[in-house]
Amino acid sequence: MRIQLGLEAVLAIGAFCAHCAAQSFQRLGTCPTLGCIIPPDQADFLPGQHFDIRAEVHAPLNGSEAIKGYTTPDPSFTLSIEREGGNAQPVSAFFNLPEPKLETWNFTWYEDLFAHAAKTPSQVRVASKAWRNVALYEPGQYIATLTYRNGSQTTVANWTVRDISPRQRAKNVVMFIGDGMTTNMITAARLIGHQSINGKYQTKMAMDQFPMLGHQMTHSIDSFITDSANSATALYSGHKSTVNALGVYADSSPNKFDDPKIESIAELFHRLRGGGVGIVSTAFIADATPAALTAHTRDRGQYGAVIDSFLRGITNYTWTNWTGPDVLFGGGAEQFYPGKGSFQGKDYYQEFASQNYTVVLNNTALQAADNSSKQLGIFSVSNMAKWLDRNVYPENLNKSSTAPDGSKAAATDQPGLKEMTLKALEVLQTRHGDKGFFIMSEAASIDKMMHVLDYDRALGELLELDDTIKATISWLRDAGELENTLVLVTADHGHGFDVMGSVDTHYLDTQKESREKRGAIGTYQNSGLSQYVLANRSAPIGSDQNLVYGPGVNFPANWDPRYTLYSGVAAFPDNREDYQVNKKGPRVPAINITGFSNEDFFVNYVDAVTGFIINGSLPVSADQGVHSLTDVPVFTRGPCTELFSGVFNSIDIFYGMAECLGLSRTSPS
């Protein structure tokens, strides 16, 4: 039976659902009641890990949560903590801290899409206190209890301090993050980079050869789809947070830098071991995945402040001691040269140089730099050039105003992920060969190219990651550090990508109608075999159809074969698709058209002229694809691999690395 509802009935349903658990919008993600404890219920901690606590009491003035006569939040609320089996104490007494001052503020939020469309926000008054830089040392269960509204209401948070031995089992950790990388993408990269004969691959990817494979669940604390900021926070700190949050639990205050912080793996390793820290990314270096190692803000877009946190750590509150990483390599020059993009308009090349960093701006200088000094390497404006453009279509690097010095020049001498990672390892080993090192190396543009539906470039970035892993294993072996090092390869989240067959691009290009063009797609037995590993010997050597690599290097010999991959993602904007490599640079699938709303995006015709239109599956405000729910792989080798088997939560990556490095502390000394 088909039921038709009038507008009044639809609005009534919307009003009714406002009383249900919030979905599209939330008053505060970790706070289903009007009393909020942060860290929230179910939080885990490493023994001795530093963190902040905040309590908030909310008084909604309107909307479904408003209580008649309750318009001022209780300023006399109390927060107590007890270890299970012990006695509850006020939090200030428990941590031997002075009582913090009471803070008050107001905020608004929308209860659902109906309220958002009608522009009728709910208003909330808040009373709050924050306790800074505390730690729990004794493993076990803890109960935090917030009492408010004159003692009539309570909120309870159950915390677990994990029982983790402080025994150190690894000297070093090398953490590779393929941003957005999924098992399906690895499978596709293997298909185009490794030759198969009669269904049997003749070579394997480096990560294929790791002895342990697990999978991690990537969901956020208050949504089942994550972003790179929140997911990186989980990987580095063992605490899930909210989308856009870096190293904090998001609170409701107007200040983007006062949210409750959690100490990261880099901060812990620096504080407790005094070892070296390396941060490497092909993204602009203030991007979420590198930023979450040192930044603490609920707004990942505070790029200038992120750069300052790399150098100085947290300066607005007492926090763990941080004197900067030994190595910081990536793009994002606009946050370094003085101007509107840099923090307070300062010259951050000079700021780093004044703290004894060697500053390098191209690959030539990088390779020549002294390994005994700290190094800052920034190689382009924005994200760094993609492997496909650096190695196959280098003319795409000739773009003005991309040079990292802020000039009108082009950044044509950029290192790749492998060059940056190997240099970082040399610096870390030279400076901290005795105490060990932690390095995070991110292949950022797997994700960035998946977002814009540029699957060729995304898979090229993934193959570059695998090539970097292979080179790193070789470097560690030669340095005598392989058996001392946990090497971990994972992703922060995934995209709904897969390969379903092949496409005869010659046939597609010659057809005039979209329905006829779709006939070029071959599935099942008509998918055939990978043509990417077969060079076109009639093409010039070194062209995109006849590429030659050294021994043991596995990239496509032919990036422009007749038969390409029929691949795609599940969530995408309106676009045209021709299933062929874009030789002029990364794709731009959807654009805004003059005369239409800035929130409306349409098919970009020139992105795939010979292709056909694919109607988008996302709202028209989307100009690129989005992340998906999928679990992502975790490959490990070296000490502690047994900690990463099976299917586990993303926060367990942090606890496994911390256990392997022996970072647990059962007393302050």
In which range does the helix fraction lie? 10-25%
CATH topology descriptor of the largest domain: Alkaline Phosphatase, subunit A
* Distance between the amino and carboxyl termini: 70 Å
Number of helices: 17
Largest sheet: 10 strands, mixed
Rg, nearest Å: 26 Å
Overall number of strands = 28
CATH homologous superfamily caption of the largest domain: Alkaline Phosphatase, subunit A
Strand order of the largest sheet: 16-17-15-14-18-10-19-27-13-28
CATH architecture descriptor text of the largest domain: 3-Layer(aba) Sandwich
Question: Could you please describe the fold and organization of this structure?
Answer:
Keywords: Magnesium, Metal-binding, Signal, Zinc. Belongs to the alkaline phosphatase family. With 669 residues, this protein is of the alpha/beta class. The protein folds into two domains: 7-161, Sandwich (Immunoglobulin-like), CATH 2.60.40; 172-495 and 627-661, Alkaline Phosphatase, subunit A, CATH 3.40.720.10. It is built from 17 helices and 28 strands. The strands form seven sheets. A ten-stranded mixed beta sheet has the order 16-17-15-14-18-10-19-27-13-28, with helices on both faces. Strand 11 (196-197) and strand 12 form a beta hairpin. Helix 4 crosses helix 14 and helix 12 packs parallel to helix 14. The longest helix is centred in the last third of the chain and has 24 residues, at 455-478. The chain is globular. The model is unreliable at 1-20 (pLDDT under 50).
